[in-house]
Amino acid sequence: MSYGHRVSESAISLRGVVKRYGEITAVDRLDLEVPEGTCVGLLGPNGAGKSTTMRLLTAQAIADEGEITVLGHVLPGDSEAARAECGVVPQLDNLDTTLTVEQNLRVFAVLYRIPRGERRTALERALELANLDDRRDTRVDKLSGGMRRRLLIARALVHQPRLVMLDEPTVGLDPQVRQELWALIDALRAGGVSILMSTHYIEEAERLADAVTIMAEGHAVASGPPHELVAEHAGREVIEVYGPPPRLAEVEREALGNGFRTRRTGTSVAVLGTESANGKAPEGHRRAANLEDVFVLLTGEEVQ
Amino acid sequence: MSARAHRARRIGRLERPALAGVLTREVINFSSFWRATTFSSTVEPTIYLLAFGFGFGSLVSEVAGYDYVEFVGTGTVATAVLFSSVFPAMFGTFIKYQFQRTYDAILAAPVDTEELVTAESLWIATRAGTFGCTPLLVAMVFGLDPRWGMLLVPFIGFLTGFGWACFGILIAAVLKSIDNFNYVTSTVITPLFLTAGTFFPIDGLPQWARILAQVNPLHHCVELVREAAFGFDTPLQDLVRVGVLLVFGLVLWRLAIWRMTKKLVD
């Protein structure tokens, strides 16, 4: 099969992808694009179909409809060739816990078909990247949560993939460790690696992603660079009004009556797009609109 | 980027690098628990030999023309092969996909289910072929005479172990809970293990049981090992026995791949 002339320069391209599990449609006519060399964040509440999308990309789930291309390989037929050039960081830690850091990496150096003579160099590079050089002989079950996560990422990078897919890379980690991982992911992107990262941490997407795709109920409800999505959907400025629930309901009613969009934050009501309020905005705490406003606006306030 | 250059290469079926990758993982893992495995696979047949050999041996000195210790010593090769293949395959596979999620990690690399199942069963079969020899070695301590034919025993163990490894993987793929393994152990494995002709010759069994024994792969394993240990008296029948084991392995290999694919890829 020849891929001499490719139409798109996409690392990942999904067109109208549908995946059903019995009655449930987990992914519903999803379009998703990861241009080569960029980092795309896949945002969405729990159950939006992010994890299923990740599984589709490694052909661990097979789409019922639509087209999936990964690094020019058409899935599921050419999935093995695609996987050879991809690194996958799963949401759930699946390291071999009774093996050492280095042994874990060595297994994947073979699985990813690194020629024997280059394995040593590849291992050293991965160890250094994950800053686990001095832990190479430590058994995985003796590592801290942050180190395990770094090893999980290093394992996905051992063959220097052109595309890395991370499924909720920092879930359950403390802020220091998250920062460390963000730096690692940012360095990858700077090195020209294409990245798809699913997350439900808005801050993570805002900091790392060149573009985000927001998913709800299995399809993309919005795509674009974070600041553009914010400007388009939430405006520039937001006023947050705090108070007891009856007061919040009143503020919400008034703001809606004045033509504003609102969203609840749990402790307050956020009135969006107040930069063009002409004196009709309520009194409250002013702040810049952010991606979280867009997220809640587009994926709904109710818990799924 | 240079990666584009070999883009045109399509990855085929049962590729050696994929098998090597899965095997590497198993070998490295094994290096951390081989002592325990070797210990139990040596001690177990010794206990069988002592218990049956001297327990029954004091009642019956000869069975089917053999010294009873020799009869049991060769027979328990099949037991060792069975136990070191079917149980690691059932429990190991279930643990690896359900609890450790190892297979998720492996299938994210350029490996497919066919390669995964094949490599896993080849590895278990190799172990079964190796550990299957321990009863023979123990029996030698108790007076079994070495013969050149015994060099074929690891291969008989490998062939039998491959089928049972695939059987174990199939069971792990089909059953939803590890507790349900008990049903298989008590309805399939124990009866087949007891009617294989390991501890007593099947000639004494009722006719239906003797007919059933002909489809029991373990019985053919037992008979082949005895032939290897005491001389190939019935070469034609031995070939048929090898054929049965081959068919057993081949059918269960495909079944295991089929069910495991259903389990791992949705």
Task: Provide the number of structural domains of chain A.
Answer: 3
Q: Helix content range of the residues of chain A, please?
A: 25-40%
Largest β sheet strand count, sense and barrel closure of chain B: 2 strands, antiparallel
Query: What Rg of chain A, in angstroms, do the CA atoms define?
Result: 22 Å
Oligomer: heterodimer
- Helix share of residues of chain B? over 70%
Assigned CATH superfamily of the largest domain in chain A:
P-loop containing nucleotide triphosphate hydrolases
H/E series of chain A: EEEHEEHEHHHEHEHEEHEHEEEH
Q: How many β-strand stretches of chain B?
A: 2
Helix count of chain A equals: 10
> Mean pLDDT of chain A, nearest integer?
90
Based on DSSP secondary structure assignment, what is the total number of beta strands of chain A? 14
The run of helices and strands of chain B is HHEEHHHHHHHHH
Low-confidence stretches of chain A at least 5 residues in length (pLDDT < 50)?
1-7
Alpha-carbon distance between the termini of chain B? 33 Å
